[in-house]
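Ex. 9. Protein: Fe2+ transport system protein A.
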Amino acid sequence: MTLEGLAPGCCATITSIDWDSIAADDGKRLRALGFDAGVEVSVKHRGVFGGRDPLAVTLGRMTIALRRVHAAAVSVSEG
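Predicted structure tokens for Fe2+ transport system protein A:
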């Protein structure tokens, strides 16, 4: 399962990230924010227009706006 498919309110752990599918600058920003395997994450909200972009994601104590394309590159396991 990917972070993009995680239901709002559910908690999960990042298992892997497909860094090759993310632009280098975006990947650098995500790494700086703490995206890495083993980190707990949850989806707080989804956008309301069109493709439901962006997602509001909680990572640690931060809430981050994340594009769906980036969330689709993050594999997670629920629980």
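Check your answer against this statement. The chain has a mean pLDDT of 92.
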